[in-house]
């Protein structure tokens, strides 16, 4: 059975799940614990010194180390319409890079807010930890968040450079959808998935598709940006309704 290592709320993990689900490929989901679980991913990927991130897919004797590689694997293995058609690969890759650039403006804010929100730290505990014991693990959760800040060299500057980085990506999306387009490239592709999941860092999608604890939803939400880009939120929600099964 395929194993998909994820951080549940991560937009990159959602991209990978969506690609596999689009093709109806079965897999077991494994929740990744940052810092603690990296040794296992290094063993799977054969990377001892490179930075390790999730999602990671272990399938058919191989390991795939990011959501783009996983989407290409899903296209090769599945039988449904390709998410990265060969004729559009360059354009899809471009939109994937735009989404990654926008996420560069989201991650610093999310990590900084987690350090300020004890309940969001509690939500990082593994599922088997009882609710009453989660507060006892907050020092460990803070250690993990600070590790992620160092790993990605993030610095939160509120609505400064980080906010501009996100808004620039959203402006690019708005321009790409001009003319009331349903899809960025005339058909449903991984470009739409990448940009739709970027909006997770503005206003997370409904719990119908991705259930989040309230504290996690709070740290991922940026209300002022959500108001300014309500049209893109509506586009994302429509895309989910038509192309994503309820969880």
Automatic annotation (TrEMBL):
Highest taxon, organism lineage: Bacteria
CDD domains, A to Z: GST_N_family
Residue ranges annotated for the GST N-terminal domain, each copy included: 10-76
Pfam families: GST_N_2 (PF13409)
SUPFAM superfamilies: GST C-terminal domain-like, Thioredoxin-like
Designated name of the protein: Glutathione S-transferase N-terminal domain-containing protein
Organism this protein belongs to: Pendulispora brunnea
Lineage: Bacteria, Pseudomonadati, Myxococcota, Myxococcia, Myxococcales
